[in-house]
Design goal:
By secondary structure, the chain is an all-alpha fold. The chain has a single domain, classed as Ferritin, CATH 1.20.1260. The protein has nine helices and no strands. Helix 5 runs antiparallel to helix 6 and helix 5 runs parallel beside helix 8. The protein is globular, with a radius of gyration of 18 Å. The two termini are 33 Å apart. Pfam families: MiaE_2 (PF13794). This is Ferritin-like domain-containing protein.
């Protein structure tokens, strides 16, 4: 299948946060109208968790500090556990996990390629920021799923992911090399556009740009705000 991504791509135009004085009252989004069918939701979410596991596993081999390796390895294990939980939900429906994930494999592999950094610090930051944003998104989107799948998916994706330790490792790296902060801040800003494209690809949209923007703006505004808080926690400027 075709992929959304190439190695070099132009900057992505993001939803923009308006000043507080200009923001309209919060819009209630009917997630049932824009949520995907259940099997594509589970397939995409499962493959993203598998990719997160693979990325963190690669970082383990590049980090020089043994204690940091152990902490990142635990974070990789949490991502794998989430993947296995989503796979179990696919099987619970009587479907084949490989079949459910296959339509998303090329695009997510491409996403992984362009969010792999120049060194382990950049790649670890990418894993932290993209996984956090996409977990937030799929948790929010789970409210539009049928039956009891939504609450189970939200509970599973909301489990501990070991990110507190990842933040500590990144903060320690920045403290040791203060010049790293400006490079990671720029890298973090670049990551968010491509990550939001992954999120947007999961939505069932009408094709009417104005209507779709009205429906999705509250969701993307929340995602960007959460991304900013993650950058702040690292002492980086979003």
């Amino acid at each position: 299948m075709s992929t959304w991504f190439t190695r070099r791509r132009p900057l992505v135009e993001l939803p923009r946060l308006k000043p507080r004085s200009e923001q309209p009252p919060a819009t209630r989004v009917d997630l049932h109208e824009i949520a995907p069918e259940l099997l594509p939701y589970l397939g995409q979410a499962a493959y993203l968790q598998l990719e997160a596991f693979q990325t963190l596993s690669r970082v383990v081999g590049e980090v020089p500090d043994l204690e940091a390796r152990e902490s990142i390895g635990k974070a990789a294990g949490f991502a794998l556990a989430k993947h296995q939980g989503l796979v179990a939900e696919i099987r619970r429906r009587g479907d084949d996990p490989a079949y459910a994930m296959q339509p998303f494999a090329d695009a997510i592999d491409g996403f992984s390629a362009i969010t792999t950094g120049a060194d382990w610090q950049e790649t670890l930051l990418a894993a932290h920021l993209t996984a956090g944003l996409l977990d937030d998104f799929f948790i929010r989107l789970s409210a539009g799923l049928p039956g009891d799948f939504g609450p189970r998916a939200a509970q599973l994706l909301g489990l501990d992911s070991g990110q507190d330790e990842v933040v500590r490792i990144l903060r320690d790296a920045i403290a040791e090399d203060p010049q790293l902060a400006s490079r990671l801040a720029m890298w973090g800003r670049r990551l968010v556009g491509d990550t939001l494209l992954v999120a947007r690809s999961a939505l069932h949209l009408s094709g009417n740009a104005r209507t779709d923007e009205e429906r999705t703006e509250p969701i993307f505004t929340e995602l960007i705000a959460a991304h900013t808080r993650r950058m702040d926690a690292l002492g980086l400027t979003a």
